[in-house]
Design brief:
The chain has helices spanning 5-17, 50-68, 82-92, 133-144, 161-169, 180-189, 195-206, and strands spanning 21-23, 29-30, 36-37, 39-41, 73-77, 96-99, 112-113, 121-129, 148-157, 174-179. With 214 residues, the protein is α/β, with parallel strands linked by helices. It has a single domain (5-198), classed as 3-Layer(aba) Sandwich (Rossmann fold), CATH 3.40.50.2020. The chain has a 6-stranded mixed sheet, with helices on both faces. Strand 5, helix 3 (82-92) and strand 6 (96-99) form a beta-alpha-beta unit.
Length: 214
């Protein structure tokens, strides 16, 4: 859920500017899932831009404090959100942990890396929400470790109905700086794409698993 329209539009502008989000509606990408998609998002690119990463960390931190006060720990979801999560934790002067997709097979066999005590209040930072399954897997690992997970802040969401339902079912509050709706608004208002390309983006969002640019 986006809570501030101006921040959502500005975040979309910045992600497009540095090509963290690429839009190619007439020459679509193929995702690992096999889906054909007019959009590709890699928010790790933001870490290479000092001004932009600072804008993102400060807005995420402000949103966390507005919603939850100051938690005990910030958690990042590996691997994409480790960098931005650490920046947020540093800005808020808080401890940081990160969550692997699964526990290591050797050593201490951790899934949650870093120092985390049972009962500590944790806010999870994520870079991108698609279906939400990997993000909620991280939440489950934190809860298993005894954390009191207050909610999740993400840079961007595709806004899939499946993700909304998944977060609702797990009773986890999701807040994003920007999303697909505001991305389209930004691309349309600035002439980044023409009307035909905007129509293709909107049609993909309606049925992404079967979409075709033709």
């Amino acid at each position: 859920m986006v809570r501030d329209r101006d921040t959502a539009i500005k975040t979309a502008e910045l992600l497009l500017q540095i090509k963290a989000i690429k839009l190619q509606p007439q020459d679509p990408f193929t995702w690992a899932s096999g889906w054909s998609s007019p959009i590709y998002c890699d928010n790790r690119v933001t870490l290479s831009y000092h001004t932009i990463r600072n804008y993102l960390r400060e807005n995420i931190a402000d949103r966390i404090e507005d919603l939850y006060g100051k938690p005990d720990v910030i958690a990042g979801v590996a691997t994409g959100a480790i960098g931005i999560g650490m920046l947020v934790a540093d800005y808020m002067k808080l401890p940081f942990v990160y969550v692997r997709p699964e526990a290591k097979k050797h050593g201490r066999k951790n899934q949650v890396e870093g120092h985390l005590e049972k009962g500590q209040k944790v806010v999870v930072v994520e870079d991108l929400i698609s279906t939400g399954n990997s993000s909620l897997n991280a939440v489950a690992a934190l809860k298993e470790a005894g954390a009191d997970v207050k909610g999740m802040l993400a840079l961007f969401s595709y806004g899939f109905d499946e993700a909304t339902e998944n977060f609702k079912n797990q009773n986890i509050e999701l807040t994003t700086l920007s999303d697909y709706e505001h991305l389209i608004l930004q691309a349309q208002s600035t002439g980044y794409l023409n009307e035909t390309e905007i129509a293709l983006l909107k049609s993909w969002r309606e049925n992404p698993s079967t979409w075709s640019a033709s």
